[in-house]
Each structure stands twice: as structure tokens, then as C-alpha cells.
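Dear colleagues,

For the upcoming journal club I promised to circulate an example of a predicted protein-ligand complex. I picked one with succinic acid because it came up in last month's discussion. The inputs are reproduced below in full, followed by the predicted structure.
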Amino acid sequence: MNSPRGAEILGQDPLVTNDAAAASTPSTLEIPGLTSSRLSPSGYIAPQDVGAKLAIIMVGLPARGKSYIVKKLARYLNWLQHRTRIFNVGERRRKIAQSKLGGEASESPPTTPSSLSSARFFDPTDPNMVSLRDQIALGTLDELLDWLLRDGGSIGILDATNSTLQRRQLVLFRIRQRAGPQLGVLFLESCCYETELLETNFRLKLAGPDYKGQIPAQALADFCQRVAHYERSYVPLGVAEEEQGIPYVQMIDVGRKINTHLIQGFLSTQVVDYLLNFNLSERQIWISCNGGSFDDATGKIGRNSNLNDNGWRYARALARFIQKQREDWEKMRRQRVASGRTWPLGKISTSSRTSNNRSRPPVSSRDSRPRNICIWTSMMPQAIQTAEPFPEDLYIKKQMKMLDDLNAGTMAGLSFDEIAVLHPAEFAARKRDKLLYRWPGLGGKGYVDVINRLRPVIMELERIQDHLLFVTHRAVVRVLLAYFLGLERDDLADMVIPKDSVFCLEPVCIIHNLSL
Ligand code: SIN
């Protein structure tokens, strides 16, 4: 599959280090809230520190889960406080189609709005269409580069197929032209060979903006034609990139297999680390604060404390509730397996051409086994006690220091009212920027510390396929919810977390809600 001309074509790109690069200040890792330097006092990458930034360029045929992967990846990176944004070429194409409808086409395509989503538009032998698609892709890339170079972004993700060597050459050329040699570039390809995955992706595509409301069989035929057009000129990442020393990650069947090339640097390794732990398992994730403790009753923060009577009542109610939820979920799963989720439109027509056919796996049945429920608590007594009513033989319990409450340093054991009176300067500093604020004194921590200590926990929860109940503390609940809900920086620390409540998250429920 790798064209012998590949290296030659990519070789036309100005991927060379020049004098300016040699003279520039070397970039080292920046972690918001955890590193500080003259250039980046808060650890957020400074606008002029282009060498510390990263452009991630997606590669892959349509319906290979690229958009799913980039949304999840961007959510994770933003949660780590690396400013990340996705730039989607299909969205720009649809915007152009819309503006043509309103009579204000910017790229002036020689087409009608509806033809911008029909299969013909993706024909690689039609030079007008190829040129128009390149223009749209480069326009989107320019938005990405504006965000990285002018608007304070750290990581820009170009969500597009970029499935030919020529397109990748164009993209690299524009990046080097505008950002110079320092900006980090990482190609990330998603390949899918598993039938179930492809079916799910096709389903999502046909329910998406290009085909919404169309007759399903016609939509499917058009989309298969579009994919066939792409397959004619598709060149997966591989030999050409390796000969040119271009970093890449090739992800096969959402993490079943990952090929990497020249992955170095803080941001790129974080990205790969995360992708290595991907899984699409259907399950429930529950998040609860500890039941009420003696300290909670008086508003005192950050210390070990035992459950009071209300707390024990909550713990018992939680155990009954989760047991019922678990039984209901299992019943639903058994019904789904018995009814057999079938693809309603017959065989999908895609040749799934591959650079390495040995990658083709046996047909998967990802979700056919019953799930365990893991309970992860902090090591503080109020959380451990809240999990006590859950029988050990039915639940897999683990205590994790990473889930402990935010350490309030010298303020531990005081209430917020007391801190406001006794330490007004600290109280005001915390109010000004709760996310970056760190409690004073030995062991005092802040939200950014909680985010960073939860990193291995997030990796582990992404890896395992079981249901999971977290029993932890208000600040940690906020940080966990911020990860799942993709909350913005300022919403994270101020989110209202009611006591005696449990949150339920079902990561892939969207797939079940979509039908043709
Ligand atoms: C699209 O227009 O939907 C994707 C364009 C591309 O990257 O090929």
C-alpha cells in the first residue's frame, strides 16, 4: 500500500531545521499549575513558545472513528489544562454549503450546496473537486494555526481524512510555512477492521449532519460510494513518513494495536499514553461523595472523620441502590444479547484496504460478558466506611490515596466561615482563582494537584471494562466530573456538588440511542 513514490512526494516538504530553529530557546515540559518559569509563570504554554505546542493531524478513511477519538482526546488534554481545540474539515465544508445557500460562499465552489456532501464531491479523479477539498482543508488548517500562533492555544487537532500523501504534503508545507520548524507535528491515524466497529461508525455517520433525514438505503449507498472514492487514493501512514522522520501514531481498532514512530516530547507522549488505554466498553460509572461525617456536619474541611448516623444511612441506601442498578443493567444487557443487535442495511461495502492484512482480528463480541463492579474509595475513613455496606464477595473494592480529599494544609480542620475570618487574604486568593490556588502549609494542595494525581486513575478507568463506583470527596468529585463532562476551567472548581447524591455516567450510550 505504501507507494514507492511516497517518500519522494513527502520529500518536497520543507521539513528542515534552519538557523532560526537552531538558535531558538529549547522548550521543556510545561504543566499548568505544576511548573513555573519566566516565560510561563503558571505553567500554561506561553504564546511565543511555539516549540512546546503541538499540531495533531488526523489521518484515516471516513467512518474510522476519527472524530470520536479526537473528541475524547481533546477532552482529556483540556482536563489536564493543556489548551486544546479541534478543527474539523467536514464542518467547514458544511458551513460553506450553508453560506452558499445564503448566497455568501467564501471559497466560491463551482458546485451546488447539496453536491458538497454527495459522493461525487469526493471523487479523486475530478481535479476541481480535489482542488476545492484541498482549499477547504487548508482553510481549516489556517484556523488551527491562528489558534496556536495567535490565540493562546497549546494543541490544535485537524480532524480530516488526510488520506493521501499529496494532502499530507500540503498540510506539512503550510505548517512549516506559517509556524516554522519548531512546532511539534504528530500524525494520528485511525484504522478499523473489526466489523462491529465499522458498523457502529457507519451508523453514526448516517445519523450525522451529511445524511440526517435522508432515506437510509440511499444515504448508505452514497456514503459507501464516498468511502470507495477515498479508498482509491488512500495511503496509510508508514514508509513515506518513516523515511522522512515524521512522528506518527497508527491506532488499529481503537487501541487493539498501536504502531508508533518517533514519539518524543511531553505532549506527544501524553497523547500516546492515553490512546494506549482506550476502550469502548458499555458500562456505568458512578461517582459519590462520602456519606455525611462528623466534620461535614460542622463544615470542617480536609481531615479524616468518621461517618455520623446520617452518613451510615446514606452508605446503606447507596449499597441498595447500586445493587438494584446493577441488576437492571444486567437484565438489559441479556435482553440485548438475546435480541441480537443487527445491522439493518445489509453488508457494508468497503474493502477496508490495509497496509497490513494481518491486522484483521477475529469478529469481536466486546460486550457479551457480565460486568463486575469495582469500588474505588479514598484512604480516608469517611469514604472507606461509605463503601462498607457493599458485600466483599460481590464488589471488588480498592482504596486509592489519589482519591483522598484536597489537602487543606494549615487550614485543615477549619470551616470556610472560620477561614474567611481568620485568614481573609487566603480566602480572597482562593476565590480569585480556585483552580490554580494551593492551600498554604505542609502538604497543602490545590485543584491542579488533584487533576495530576488523578491521571493514573483516569488511565486505569479507561483501560478496564467493568462498572465503577467512586466514593471520594467533593473536590475530587468535581475533578472527576470535569473529566467526563469536558468542563471548562472556570466551571470545574465552582460546580455545585450536592451531598447524599450519586452521579451516573454511561460513556457510550449515544450509540444505542441512534437508529436508522
Ligand atoms: C469532509 O469533508 O467531510 C472531510 C474532508 C476530508 O478530510 O477529506
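Two points we might discuss: Residues 190 and 251 are 5 Å apart (CA to CA). The pocket of succinic acid is lined by residues 89-90, 93, 133, 137, 160-161 (CB under 6 Å).

See you all on Thursday,
B. R.
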